[in-house]
């Protein structure tokens, strides 16, 4: 189980198009390859992680993947919910809100 949930938004800049789905798909392919648990939403993708080094590796791999698609600049927005006292999951966070 994870100790943090990172919400990640990746915006490629200078692509000449307003369509982003191919880039979102490429980023989620990285997450699949790395075997991390994630859930893609309308604007952010939530990722369950145990440590910051895995997040850094995700950012590097996503950047490399987008660069291979011709992207010259990437804007990352990251929000991290970190627990030191107990496990933290995407489903757990959602179910607490839905129960109330």
Automatic annotation (TrEMBL):
Domain of life of the organism in this record? Archaea
Matching SUPFAM superfamilies, A to Z? MTH1187/YkoF-like (SSF89957)
Which residues does the UniProt record annotate as the domain Thiamine-binding protein?
6-98
Please provide, in alphabetical order, the Gene Ontology terms of the cellular component aspect for this entry.
cytosol
Q: Which InterPro entries match?
A: MTH1187/YkoF-like, Thiamine_BP, UPF0045_domain
In the record, the note on similarity to other proteins reads: Belongs to the UPF0045 family.
Protein name as it appears in the record: Thiamine-binding protein domain-containing protein
**Organism field:** Thermoproteus uzoniensis (strain 768-20)
Q: Tell me the organism's taxonomic lineage.
A: Archaea, Thermoproteota, Thermoprotei, Thermoproteales, Thermoproteaceae
